[in-house]
Amino acid sequence: MADSTATTSDSSAPTDGVHPTGTGRRAAIWSVVVGIVVGLFPKVTGLLAFLSPIVRSPKVPDFYADKETDGPTDYLRICSLAALEIDKPQRFAVISDQIDGWNFTPNQPIGSVYIQKSADDTVQVFNTTCPHAGCSVSINSDSSAYLCPCHNSAFNLDGTKLISQSGRPNPSPRNLDSIDQIEIVEGDVWIHFQNFYPGRHEKKAKV
Ligand code: FES
After folding, report:
1. Could you tell me if the CB of 130 is within 6 A of ligand 1?
2. Is the pTM of the predicted complex or chain greater than 0.90?
3. Does domain 62-191 match CATH 3.30.1520.10?
């Protein structure tokens, strides 16, 4: 006679050793969760590193804040007024501390200018970049004109295009670019320096 207890056994119990028990299922779930976390970790840290400049400011040395208060905001000190000779343009590198999302880099050259001082201590400032195609202009030997060696653009000392007496064409599309925001602070020349797009008739500052 068949044993009747066989028909009342638990049908949900594992019968082949493959189906996980409750403990086995929890272990399987945990291993999946841990696998996901471990897999995501490098991606999350990489994303944070990528977003870092957006979510935090670059580390700027303490002296930088003090330095900015020496002159007008967004202006750079170029030279002392006393160092300039009257009616003789002099060339100066423009040096600035650079800050981007990642780095603070002090004392970087960002361009250069010619500065002319008149007898009444007023100054004119010109960006040395040629408006034709971006070469660097220089002053001629008797300090009477600015010349570009690349394609022979020439400019008067007031920055206007120089028209050659020989009729040789001046390829520059506009006058030499003046720097118009100038301040004299306690005997020093400060400028709001800008670079401009070459090859255009209008003077347009780069941003
Ligand atoms: S770049 Fe100066 S003349 Fe062409």
Report:
1. yes
2. no
3. no
